Amino acid sequence: MTSSIPRRTSTFMALLLGASSVILAPARPAAADDGGSFAVPELAPSTAITIDCADGEWPTGNGVLSLDLMTQLNPTDVGDGSIVVYHPPDLTDNERLYVYLELDDSTNEVQDSVTLMFDLPHDNGAPGADDRGIVVTRNGTAVTASGDISNPNTGAAIPAGQVCVNAAGAGGTWIVELEISPTDLALSGLNDVVGAAIRVTDQSDPLRTSAWPAGLVPNTTMSYANLVTRAPIDYVLVIDQSGSMGGDKWTSVNQAGDNLALILSEFKNPEIDTEFAAAGLDPDRIGVATFSSSIGGNAQAALPLQAIPAVPGTLVSDALPASPGGGTPMIDGVNESFDMFGGAGNLGDDPLRTKVVMLLTDGKHNVPSTTVNLTNPPFDYIPSSGCGTDSLVRVNTVAVGDDATVNVVPLDAIKDCYNGQGGTDINVYNTSGTTNFTGGQLTAQLTEFFITAIEPYYRWNFIGDSSGGAFNSFTLNADEGRLMLFAFWGNNADAGDLTVTDPAAAVQTGDSDTSLGYSWLVIDDPAAGDWTSFTAPNSPSLKIALVDLNLDARFGVDNEPHGMSSTIRLTAQLDQGGSPVLNADVRVDAEVPTEGFGTFSVLYQANCEPQAPELPSIDTLRDLVRIDVPGRDLRGGFRQNAPDPDPGAYQLVAGLLEECGRDGLTRDLDPGLQLFDDGTTGDAVADDGVYVREFDNTDIQGSHVFRFTARGTAPDGSAFQRSRQVSEYIDFTVDSGQSDTGDRVIDSGQVATFAEYWVLPRSATGEYLGVGRADVIDFTVNGGQAVSEVVDYGNGFYSQVIRYRTDGPKPDVTVLVQGVPIGEDSGNGGDVTIPRWLLLLLLILILILLLLLILCLLRRRRRR
Fold first, then answer.
1. What does the alpha-carbon distance between residue 272 and residue 14 come to, in Å, rounded to a whole number?
2. Fewest CB within 10 A of the end CB: N or C in the chain?
3. What 8-state DSSP symbol labels residue 224?
4. Which residues are CB-contacts of 415 (< 8 A; sequence separation ≥ 6)?
């Protein structure tokens, strides 16, 4: 097994299957009700299982759930099997459970069967139509089933490619290999805990049956076992504790962390915890790691992983220091989270736990350097097949600030690296300050990020929240399991009871806590219809409505790094009971940059008026570079130990914004963009519940924030609405044709010549790379030697000084920006000095030509 990280919680995680005259012995201790929870390992996307009654492609080793099949009358093994589950990285794909059984049964009755049944509402009551499952018979058929497990109503056949039964084995051995999708059971997915039972029938004479759990009396009543449908989850908050995180940022991080613990405590289900304990597993846990150069080793586990308490109080803020300080060793913080999961080399040893990181930082990584290379090292763990493949840990990132203050490039790269292969982003990048939020607004944005990051691991959806504007009413569709309402205040003392009016016009009132600054209301089995007047006193900074869903809505962007002028595929999948939701109104409000960090840093350096940059003079270069030449001393000193370029770049932009009287880089709203399920505009299949829009407003570098909303009528006729916000960062993308490059001699002697080779990187649309990006500039030299590091002029130009022999040819120098070779000098600006040896050579050639001309004239005169 290479991965065990579930990407959705609507999974089949714990099925025990029986076969003819056998029952399955639980692989872990049973709970008190003779049931149990059995975590099924995840099948890595790179591993394919073909339903062909062969086990050659099945994963083996630690974490694979092996099944021992035993007779009902004695414990002698009569067969075995394995189960794995596939959690696709693409939200438009469904989970699938794979089951392999090899049975030793010599009676050979073709109607021997295995029935798997699920109690979906988990009411453990009399059999009913809401109980659904699958019947597999020895003659090779597999059909859906519902009702009484002893005499089920059978329905549609499972597609042939999803089932294989081989009854022709030696000695009566027969094999079952099965692929099950939630849609086969007319489900969007399973709840976190459901009932489950198995009945095996041997059609010999007399009829014999066996069942699981032991409390299931064949042919009479049902007694379902508890079945937990997800793995336990470990959450680690990795928090930037550097000096730049002081003030409002630190207050908001403390409050948002406590808000997350509160929300997770409301998600707790004691029944699930009991089942985890019975299976020998710890329940869901939370921990906190912080990083700062002021900490010994640059990072620490401020709060070791521990069970999420029922009443968390100030769990997170108590673990954090009163104030931050020091530099920003972001890589060490990420590595500390790996240590909290057991160490980078042991991440795969516990495949039955989901590992989720939420990294909060203002982004200015600067210890021990400013470079963030996604390699091992400096990161202790990189997915085995490289970034963007199937990671054993999920890392979500949030920029605490905006594009003018946060170096978002490494955050988005980290999110992409520790995600999944292909498909749609499950990990989240968000920005907490695209409109310069502070105080309560910043707390609200960070809290929303936390909820967005954990939502894929529970069966919950956002209905709406106040951060997207006024949010006072919403609609619930039928059969939603639970409604949770929250309100949060930046000033704790302002907290008061929230209220909401239900469809029967009754006012429901929540509870509040002024010591923590929030109010909450949880309603089980909420009524379908319009809920109105969702209000709270003293203008809370955030109101949120979440629903334990009957209708599943999944929103995301394609899991690809995006450069300027690229296309982003926005996707929403809507499903109810295994049926696609059609004719929904799915839209995106896109907040986009209209001014990139790099371009602003270049153009606005002269009295806040945009002005194209010019290559500085050679004297300016000499102020920056000292080149040791025998018998000579060129001025200045090269800044090999200069301040980190990222802080310098952001200090420059902060100063320019202040000088220009501006709060930040300009942004715009592109509202109401519709997604389509019509087989066009990027949508592959019409009317499948998958809505798509190809978004191409990406010419400007910066964070693009997408707020999805979906409204419509569900297949059961009830109204619904859903929402979610995610961001994607568009990095600068160089274009060779638009970028300028050239060279000029700065000094030439009899032995050596020193020349500066320079580049001004631009995008296809004329945007500038800007300042502080020397890490993506590389000069490759053939026939000379670089005698300086890459020089950042602080105005968009970059250069390097090259030394070569005066009496030799010029060196071959290629400028690479982001790995892209840039063309020859296009003539942009700068003093160009001709080498002395070249001038001397030209003078000699001219003299020779004059001498030849004089000789020719003298010969003509003699002939006359």
1. 13
2. C
3. P
4. 395, 396, 397, 425, 427, 428, 429
CA torsion sign for 433, 438, 444, 447 is positive
The span from the CA of 786 to the CA of 8, in Å, is 52
User: Alpha-carbon distance 67 to 212, whole Å?
Assistant: 13
Q: Which two tokens stand for residue 511?
A: 């509870």
- Tokens 């930046």, residue located: 490
Q: What is the 3-state secondary structure (H, E, C) of 107-148?
A: CCCCCCEEEEEEECCCCCCCCCCCEEEEEEECCCCEEEEECC
Matching residue, tokens 């060490």: 332
Quote the distance between the C-alpha of residue 638 and its chain's center: 40
Q: What's the 3-state SS for 44-58?
A: CCCCCCCCCCCCCCC
Tokens at residue 745, please?
């001699």
Share of the chain above pLDDT 90, in %: 43
Say if residues 231 and 63 touch (Cβ distance below 8 Å).
no
Distances (CA, A) of 529 to 478, 547, 715: 8, 13, 15
**Predicted local distance difference test score (pLDDT) of residue 13:** 30
Mind spelling out the 3-state secondary structure of 539-588? CCCEEEEEEECCEEEEEEEECCCCECCCCEEEEEEEEECCEECCCCEEEE
Token look-up 């010419």 returns: 699
Q: Which residue has the tokens 């064949």?
A: 218
Q: Cα separation of 770 and 760, whole Å? A: 9
Taking residue 849's Cβ as centre, other Cβ atoms within 10 Å add up to: 10
Count CB-CB contacts under 10 A for residue 623.
13
Which secondary structure element, helix H or strand E, spans residue 635, and what is its range?
none
DSSP three-state, residue 76:
coil
Mean pLDDT over 802-825 rounds to 89
Distances (CA, A) of 734 to 386, 602, 698, 764: 24, 15, 14, 7
C-alpha Rg value of the chain to the nearest Å = 33
Nearest to 617 by CA among 797, 811, 786: 797
pTM of structure? 0.83
Assigned token pair, 22: 């056998």
Residue 128 to residue 126: CA distance in whole angstroms: 6
CA–CA gap between residue 713 and residue 208 (Å, rounded):
47
Structure tokens at 56: 């050659």
Decide: 200 and 22 in contact? Cβ < 8 Å.
Answer: yes
Contact 792, 644 (CB under 8 A): no
For the residues 58-74, what does the mean pLDDT come to?
57
Residues 6+ apart with CB under 8 A from 725: 430, 448, 452, 467, 468, 705, 706, 707, 708
Helix (H) or strand (E) holding 100: strand 96-104
DSSP string, 742-790: EEEEEEE-SSEEEEEEEEE-B-TTS-B--SS-GGGEEEEEESSEE-S--
Per-residue tokens: 101? 């059984």
Return the number of other C-beta atoms located less than 10 Å from residue 32's C-beta: 9
pLDDT of residue 17 exceeding 80: no
SS3 content of the chain, % helix, strand, coil (to 5): 20, 35, 45
| Residues with Cβ within 8 Å of residue 567, at least 6 apart in sequence | 694, 695, 696, 698
pLDDT at 124: 55
Instruction: Tally Cβ neighbours within 10 Å of residue 617.
Output: 11
Residue type at position 213: P
What would the DSSP string read from start to end of 143-175?
A: EEEES-TTSPEEEEEPPGGGEEEE---GGGEEE
Tokens (6 digits) for 197: 């039972």
Assign 558 a pLDDT band (cuts: 50, 70, 90).
confident
Give mean pLDDT, residues 779-805. Answer: 93
**Using the 8-state DSSP alphabet, how is residue 344 labeled?**
G
Pairing, β 394-399 against β 354-361: parallel
Q: Where are the beta strands (DSSP E) in 141-279?
A: 142-146, 153-157, 163-166, 173-180, 193-202, 208-212, 225-228, 233-240
Q: Where are the beta strands (DSSP E) in 384-473?
A: 394-399, 429-431, 460-465
Question: Distance between CA 386 and CA 382 in Å, rounded?
Answer: 6
